[in-house]
Amino acid sequence: MGKWLKTTECIGFDVAERVARITLNRPDKRNALSAQMLAELHDALLEADDRNDVHAIVLAGAGKDFCAGYDLAGAYAGASDDASGYRSANATLDDDCWQLEQTQRQTMALFDLHKPVIAQVQGNCLAGGTDLALMCDMVVAADDARIGFPAARANGTPPQNMFIYHVGPQWAKRLLMTGDWISGADAARIGLVMDSVPADELDAKVSELASRVAAVDAELLAAHKRVVNLALELAGARTMQRLCAETDARAHLSRGPRRTQFRADMAEHGLKVALKHRDEPFGDGRVRLGSER
Prior knowledge:
The chain is α/β, with parallel strands linked by helices and 293 residues long. The protein has one domain: 2-enoyl-CoA Hydratase, Chain A, domain 1 (Alpha-Beta Complex), CATH 3.90.226.10. Helix content is 47%, strand content 15%. The strands form 2 sheets. A 7-stranded mixed β-sheet has the order 1-2-3-4-5-7-10, sandwiched between helices. Strands 6-8-9 form a 3-stranded mixed β-sheet. The radius of gyration is 18 Å and the shape is globular. Mean pLDDT is 92; it is low at 76-87.
């Protein structure tokens, strides 16, 4: 099988040996999710799903990070909807729900595709990065990857949430109620990701796995994916995503001191100060399992 390559402004797209590699390509922004990146990612996923020469998909991030989350400068700096592609700071509850649902329709493609998707996670996989990774069919992380949802400390609840389906209620609450992050190695121990390897072995590990998956006929892979995902749907996973968007929109109406401070810091000082004040009380923010304390 030959190789095919296409690159848009925010996404790299490479097809070789029945595997499509889709790469988030804003390394200077830690692959933060902008409206443009989400739209280009959605188009790339649909193209990979449509191609007869693709049996499996790898979702990766260029540079040091998989994805550090949503582009907060656009979402929280008071930019208009037209300028940022996200809700404005003064959106109504229904406007907010609508915007969150539009984003969710783009990222839920990972779940809905017929082709299996493997997330290759290195560096930061935070907030919106987990929205992508945990919607994939398998996640392989670097041992030292940082996985979590620190925005839960002041910004809202995940607008789509697969934590509980991977790790159960206690670990889901532990991670979300603190916004702490967990290493890739420990994430594998609790089932948040499928496996972890040393960072310098990550690409080879994912490539080997994708090659093995892609050796199976695409129709059989689609059948396997559909039956497992139907089981998740019977467990409420799809309905849960709709409820997550609505609950996140409601959480955005909070006038609690931490959220109020974050928005004030964004308006007066910018993102760096806002994140510093949000996260400073939590120290390094890492979850340490019993043997590491």
